[in-house]
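Worked Example 4.2. Read the sequence first, then its structure tokens.
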Amino acid sequence: MIALHTTGGNNPLWLSWDFDPIVIVIVLTAGLLYTRGLGHRSEARLRLHPWWRPVLYYTGLGTLLFALISPLDHLADELFFMHMIQHLLLTITAAPLILLGAPMIPVLRGIPRPVRRAVVVPFLRSPLVRKPLKLISLPILAWALYVGAIVAWHTPNAYDFALRNGLAHDLEHLSFSLAAILFWWNVINPVPLRANLSYLARVPYVFLTTVPNFVLGAFITLSENPWYSFYIEQNLRWGLSAQEDQQIGGVLMWVPGSLVLLSALLIVLAYVVITEQRKQESREAQGTMTD
């Protein structure tokens, strides 16, 4: 049985918050700029950001904070399955929620006008910025970066190294988050921008992401030996063997992780059907008017 009421130092678990100033500043700044930008909405912009977009955006930021500074972050250093939950929150929860909030216009408008005009706009229009962003947002590269980050960081050597090295651990989380943003950018239309794929093309794009996630989760779950030596000693204080801990984490990636991606696939399929129906109705209406 897992005893989750204390940490490794016998302190109450609920006190083990990691108030990382960098994470807090980034998330609070993103939230404040978004809120300030929404205050400048015209009627047209109000249509682009109905009530549900801010709700999803703030939920995404809250999920990001919970994953990185709450006691979950402490438990992730001691239990593999908690670390898996943290990774799933970063990649398949926070990232799509933030993009569904369509943050670009509100965040840019939230920046003070002198700073926006003198610094931010020229920076974003610079070819040194636009060309690399355009390149890495291409579906094939975004997919490769996302799947590559997930697979590479879950190899035993890389995973153990990240757990033992704080800088590598931060880099792991940063790469997960950025790669997830790029991946979901081609699934979700982050208004006013659009994905680089048609709705129909997004179907194989999401499906081809579900497969490696499913396979990796299955390998982790069904492995006869623990992959990650770091957790062997840590698990003893929680009453779990390293093998049991790994199996729980693998199942989380294998089942819930794959189900979220499959749900996205079904939503995309629904959009394809709806779009085709509307096109058909439009063609029929035009044919009736011609007759």
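Now turn to a second chain, presented in exactly the same format:
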Amino acid sequence: MAIDTTLIAKLREQTGAGVLDAKKALNEANNDYDKAVELLRKRGQKVAAKKVDRVASEGLVEAYVHGQGRVGVLVRVNCETDFVARTDSFKQLAHQLAMHIAAFDPTYIARADVPAEIVAKEKDVHTTVLAKEGKPANVVEKILEGKMTKFYSEVCFLEQPFVMDDKKSVQDIITEKIAELGENIQVSAFKRISL
């Protein structure tokens, strides 16, 4: 089957995939662009999963000031090599992550960072409300799971819907960048200050 070269170029531009990977994905998807994008995203997530254990000791600190100096953000984004840290793609990611922090004001980076007593208190509040509503115990557990997922998506940076594409989480954006750049990327710290 002949692959349209304009589709290959468009796919490479959107996903950051190489020529051969883009061509292979389009071939597998029978020239269906959306299916090819999905195939490349899934492959990228597999690549990212393999890199998650690698040490990310390089990187950069990005500063962002918004609202005529009313909100300021510092975020430390780590990668494996200083070569990647100097690329425009990595710098753009760090800038977008700082913008996201300015807009969404997360409290923690990940679920693991939320103190156990805060998690327990949040669960207790929801359990009490659900019990007062007379929900059966087996239903309460499922509802509680959904309420806690929503809680984490509000306070945990990596689980928030990304400011520039709310169909993806911040973690999804980082995972895509890991697949594109071929290195582990982690946000290790941030600070948001506002008037």
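Notes for the reader: The mean pLDDT is 85. The radius of gyration is 20 Å.
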